[in-house]
């Protein structure tokens, strides 16, 4: 329909000299409004498709297929993926990507594919927050991926840190709610963090978020180390 309107507009422009100026201008205005409406319908259709795909993902059985995994090695691969998937953002915003605690093996029984997906979801949010802040005012962006055990040695702690735009304190307790997002509908549906928490909770763990608006954000994934070797 958008293509047909384009053709009609071209035909009208060919006939402009045979029409009164008021009539021609009125027809062009109508075509432009129709084109705007159709573009919005197209955008909402795409958003609806994305939302349905996400809802399908939410309904999937995310039963963990646990295997003994070197979590440090898995996160080193995540770091490689960050440089690959977000190469454009890293280049344009001059993002420094750091890691800590990934040199020594840390073994645990996890579903590496699912945990990887959860970590990358939070990394994606961090990159978004950094780019938003950089667009407002150039600074020294930092994204850091860390791994350590808690003081009792009973939990593995994976931390994703960024010094991006941060999160308002008033919505910190909502970020894991399904379909909650501060992004536009075209940017996100709002289930990435919800699904990530579901994955980690299925491992008997949890995700917490700490943030200061306009300063930094930390997502901390805790996974029980009782099954670790």
Describe this structure in words.
With about 230 residues, this protein is of the alpha+beta class. It contains 6 helices and 7 strands. The protein has helices at about 1-15, 20-60, 70-85, 85-95, 110-135, 190-200, and strands at about 65-70, 95-100, 105-110, 140-150, 155-160, 205-210, 215-225. The strands form 2 sheets. It has a 5-stranded mixed sheet, covered by helices on one side. Strands 1-3 form a two-stranded antiparallel ribbon. Helix 1 runs antiparallel to helix 2 (about 20-60) and helix 3 (about 70-85) packs across helix 5. The mean pLDDT is about 85.
Salient structural properties:
two-stranded antiparallel ribbon; 5-stranded mixed sheet; 48% helix; 229 residues; alpha+beta
Could you write a compact summary of the structure shown?
This protein is of the alpha+beta class and 229 residues long. It contains 6 helices and 7 strands.
Counting DSSP H or I runs of 4 or more residues, the number of helices is 6
The coarse silhouette is elongated
- Strand order, main sheet: write it out: 2-4-5-7-6
Could you tell me the mean pLDDT? 87
The radius of gyration is 24 Å
Q: N-to-C terminal Cα separation, in Å? A: 62 Å
Strand proportion? 15-25%
Task: Produce the secondary structure layout.
Blueprint: H1 2-14, H2 21-59, E1 67-70, H3 71-85, H4 87-93, E2 96-100, E3 107-110, H5 112-136, E4 142-149, E5 155-162, H6 192-202, E6 206-212, E7 216-224
Parallel strand pairs: 2-4
Antiparallel strand pairs: 1-3, 4-5, 5-7, 6-7
